Amino acid sequence: MPKLLTVYYSHTGTTKKLAEQIHGKLGGDVFELVPADAYPQDMGEVIKRGMQEITDGVSVALQGNPPDAGGYGIIAAGTPNWCSTLAPPLTTYLKSQNLSGKTLAVFVTHGRGGLGHIPEDLQKLFPEAKLTEVFDGNSPDGLDAWLKIVGAPSHSPS
Ligand SMILES: Cc1cc2nc3c(=O)[nH]c(=O)nc-3n(C[C@H](O)[C@H](O)[C@H](O)COP(=O)(O)O)c2cc1C
Question: pTM value?
Answer without folding.
Answer: 0.96
